[in-house]
Amino acid sequence: MARRCPREPSRNRPPTLPVRGSGLNRRLRHRLPPLPLRRNVAHPRHPGNTSHHHLLERVGMPSAGCPTPPARRRPRGRRRRDPFPPDAVAQQRLPREDFMTVSTVRRSALVLFFLVLAAASVWWMQPAFLGLPGGAAETARPARPAGQALPVEVARAARERVADQVDAIGTLAANEQVNIAPEVAGRIVAFHFREGQRVEAGAKLVELDATIANAELRQAEANLSLAQDVFDRSQTLVQRGAGTQVALEQATAQLAVARANVAAAESKLRQLTLTAPFSGVVGLRSISVGNIVPAGQAITTLTQLDPIKLDFSIPELFIGAATAGQTVDVRVDAFPDQRYRGEVYAIDPVIDAAGRALRLRATIANADGALRPGLFARVSLTTAVREDAVVIPEAALVASASGRDLAVYVVRDGRAVMTTVTAGRRFDGKVEVTRGVAAGDMVVIAGQIRLRDGAAVNVIDAPRPPAAEPPASAGPTASVRPERRP
């Protein structure tokens, strides 16, 4: 029976069977055998519609003897892009090693070689940089015969006076300071001082116009004289029985008022003359004679410089160590070669919540007036003193075998014995030792790098035994700082 060819689909209704075209080939692409792909060779995705007639026959599509129906037209517009272009599929099927070129491999190999060479050089030279045995430093060092003593320098542990001090920053302030200002308004008629002059307490400084005040005083004195006469007559009349008691009482009251008016006039007159309330140095003035000043306006200042105050703060951690009567060592940048000593006399009862600090106030003798209020000061507060502390040179400290503690080499019977120590305060190239070393022990201060625990040593320039120690009170005070722990 002859196979009938499908009719050409009408444009008015959709076709009942799929037509031959690129869309059918895409639906049948997964049934096609894979084609070998090579780099830089263009291969067609499929050979065409006529090379797979046997596949079309399997799915019931006509092939031979039938005219090829016209392909359906796609609606005009942007063409649909193939999600899997031939180039992308070909690249996905390429082996991974083909993407790396020979130049990239060579560069990677060279970079890796130089990195390994640099790491080996650093490892080889590290002992020489750190001064430790091993590596190139150990190879370059000539071998020392077994049993030969190593030359070292030693120092003897001694007892010294060590003071615990807390470092702080403070500001100098005047012991007393006041503004010279009138209590009443008036016109300046005279100055009785020179700017910067030292004056004593009670000295006359400024004089205001007292013309009106003197007139008011004379008027008050006249009223007082009249009131006194009225009182005397009233009292005489009462004694004779000619006067009344009421008149006497009125005269008594008028006399008291007159006396009060005189006292007020005298006080106002005294207010027109400004005097120094205490001894000190007069400051600068910006008002001249003839100016009218209101009540309360400052004309100049009076400052007392001896003694001078020092205000400073310490962390709240040392609140238990701060007490009144402790000494402070003070330095100012204006006089770097001078050292001043003061004494704490007041401690603020309240901790500053913003800075978590305790405010202290001390006084410093300032007879020559060199220190001025407002100067920046570096303060060292002495909190504790140890008269017989064991002190060694700071150069004697080395790391222990574990690397976590400090140690020193103590020379005993010609051998260096590593001893773990506990360090205290450090000052002037010295360190206080609270455990591990006793006074009189000889510790190695040079040549420790080549030493091992128990190694034989040859002491060079051994110090002589110390003479009789002076009294502890006569020893110097070591100014030290508290160690900051992380």
UniProtKB/TrEMBL annotation:
Residues covered by region (Disordered): 1-92, 461-486
Residue ranges occupied by any Multidrug resistance protein MdtA-like barrel-sandwich hybrid domain in the UniProt entry: 176-302
Signal peptide interval: none
InterPro entries (UniProt xref): Beta-barrel_RND_2 (IPR058792), MdtA-like_BSH (IPR058625), RND_pump_MFP (IPR006143), YknX-like_C (IPR058637)
Entry coiled-coil feature ranges: 203-275
Gene Ontology cellular component list: efflux pump complex
YknX-like C-terminal permuted SH3-like domain mapped to chain residues: 390-459
Regions of compositional bias (Basic and acidic residues) in chain numbering: 1-11
Keywords, comma-separated and alphabetical: Coiled coil, Membrane, Transmembrane, Transmembrane helix
Protein name: Efflux transporter periplasmic adaptor subunit
